[in-house]
C-alpha cells in the first residue's frame, strides 16, 4: 500500500487533476433504526439535541439513518474488529461560525475526543493547516492531517516506515508547491482587498477565502476575482466548501487518500478486521466517504441538518449529536472485552 501511495505521489507531480466518475457504492447492509437504549430522540443525558424540523429531512433519514438511532446495529458490526476513527473539524467537532478564527470546540467535545482516542486510533483530517487544527483541538493522543490531507503527522511508531528522514512521521505530498502557494496568497490579499467581509486563511498547503461575512451582492464578484487568479495556473485548482473558496495544488490527493495513508501507517491497510469510521460535514469529506464505501467495511457518517446528496450511509444532525455519538462510542468500548490493544 505504501508503494502505491508513493507511486501515486510521483504521478501527481505531473500536475494532473483527477475527476472521479465512480458510481456511489451501496453499503453492505442497511440496519433499521434501533431502540434508543436510554436515549431520548437520539440524545444522551445532559445533551440537548435539535429536533429535525427541516422540510424533507425525515424522508432523507430513511436513506441516511441516524447513527445515534442505529448505534447498536453499527456496534454489532464492529464487535471483535479494530475500529479506527477519523473526524473532520469545522462543522463536526466545532460549530460553523462567522469568524473562522473563532471556531472553538467545547470542553465537552475535547473530553469526548480524548476519551475515544484512548480506545481507538483517532485522526482529525481538516482543511485547516495542521498547526491550526492542533491549536484548536489541543490533544496529544490524536493524529492530525491538515490541508485536506496534504500535511499529515503520522503515528510515531510508523516513522521508520513512512519517513526515513526522521521527520516525526510528517508526510507532505504537496511540499514542492509551497513557494507558489505563498506567492498566490500575497496576490490574493491585493485582489480582494476592496471586498467587505472577505477573509483569507493561509492553511499552508491550500489557501481559503471565506465569504460568510461578505454581502450577498458581492459573492459573485469575489468568486470571479479568485477564479481569475487560478484559471491560468494549471498547477492549481479552485474548490468550494461552505461559504469558502479554496485554492489547492492540482495533485491527485484528498481526504480519502489521507485516510488510506493513515490506515497504512497504522499497519491496517491489509487487515480484514478493520472498520474505519469517518464523520464529516463538507464536500471534501465525500472523498473519504467514497473510500470507505469502496472498502465495503466501515461507516461513513455525514453531519447535516438538511437533506443533501452524499456518499455517506449514516447521518448526525450537528456537532451536539457528534458529541453524543462519541460519548456512546467510548462507553460502548468500556463495556466490551478488550479486543483493541
From TrEMBL:
Highest taxon of source: Eukaryota
EC primary class: hydrolase
Example GO biological process: trehalose biosynthetic process
Keyword Hydrolase tagged: yes
Record carries keyword Hydrolase: yes
Co-factor requirement: a divalent metal cation
Associated pathway: Glycan biosynthesis; trehalose biosynthesis
Alphabetical keyword list: Hydrolase, Stress response
Record-listed E.C. numbers: 3.1.3.12
Reactions mediated catalytically: alpha,alpha-trehalose 6-phosphate + H2O = alpha,alpha-trehalose + phosphate
Pfam families named among the record's database cross-references: Trehalose_PPase
GO molecular function: trehalose-phosphatase activity
Function according to Swiss-Prot or TrEMBL: Removes the phosphate from trehalose 6-phosphate to produce free trehalose. Trehalose accumulation in plant may improve abiotic stress tolerance.
UniProt family annotation: Belongs to the trehalose phosphatase family.
Stated name of the protein: Trehalose 6-phosphate phosphatase
Organism: Theobroma cacao
Gene: LOC18605727
Amino acid at each position: 500500500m505504501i508503494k502505491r501511495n508513493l507511486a501515486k505521489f510521483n504521478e501527481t507531480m505531473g500536475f494532473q487533476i483527477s475527476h472521479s466518475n465512480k458510481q456511489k457504492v451501496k453499503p453492505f447492509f442497511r440496519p433499521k433504526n434501533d431502540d434508543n437504549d436510554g436515549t431520548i430522540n437520539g440524545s444522551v443525558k445532559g445533551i440537548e439535541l435539535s429536533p429535525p424540523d427541516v422540510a424533507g429531512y425525515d424522508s432523507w433519514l430513511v436513506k441516511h439513518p441516524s447513527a445515534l438511532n442505529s448505534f447498536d446495529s453499527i456496534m454489532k458490526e464492529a464487535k471483535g474488529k479494530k475500529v479506527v476513527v477519523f473526524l473532520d473539524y469545522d462543522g463536526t467537532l466545532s460549530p460553523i461560525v462567522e469568524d473562522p478564527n473563532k471556531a472553538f470546540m467545547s470542553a465537552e467535545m475535547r473530553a469526548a475526543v480524548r476519551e475515544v482516542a484512548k480506545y481507538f486510533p483517532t485522526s482529525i483530517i481538516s482543511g485547516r493547516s495542521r498547526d491550526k487544527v492542533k491549536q484548536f483541538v489541543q490533544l496529544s493522543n490524536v493524529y492530525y492531517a491538515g490541508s485536506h490531507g496534504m500535511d499529515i503527522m503520522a503515528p510515531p511508531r510508523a516513522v521508520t516506515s513512512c519517513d526515513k528522514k526522521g521527520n516525526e512521521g510528517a508526510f507532505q505530498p504537496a511540499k514542492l508547491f509551497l513557494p507558489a502557494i505563498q506567492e498566490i496568497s500575497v496576490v490574493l490579499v491585493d485582489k480582494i482587498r476592496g471586498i467587505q467581509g472577505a477573509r483569507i486563511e493561509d492553511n499552508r498547503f491550500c489557501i481559503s477565502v471565506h465569504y460568510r461575512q461578505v454581502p450577498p451582492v458581492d459573492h459573485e464578484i469575489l468568486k470571479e476575482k479568485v477564479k481569475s487568479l487560478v484559471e491560468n495556473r494549471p498547477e492549481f485548482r479552485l474548490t468550494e466548501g461552505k461559504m469558502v473558496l479554496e485554492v489547492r495544488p492540482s495533485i491527485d490527493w484528498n481526504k480519502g487518500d489521507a485516510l488510506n495513508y493513515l490506515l497504512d501507517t497504522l499497519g491496517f491497510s491489509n487487515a480484514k478486521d478493520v472498520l474505519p469510521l469517518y464523520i464529516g460535514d463538507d464536500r471534501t469529506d465525500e472523498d473519504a466517504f467514497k473510500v470507505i464505501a469502496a472498502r465495503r467495511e466501515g461507516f461513513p457518517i455525514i453531519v447535516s441538518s438538511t437533506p443533501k446528496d452524499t456518499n455517506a450511509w449514516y447521518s448526525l444532525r450537528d456537532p451536539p449529536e457528534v458529541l453524543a455519538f462519541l460519548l456512546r462510542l467510548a462507553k460502548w468500548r468500556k463495556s466490551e472485552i478488550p479486543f483493541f490493544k
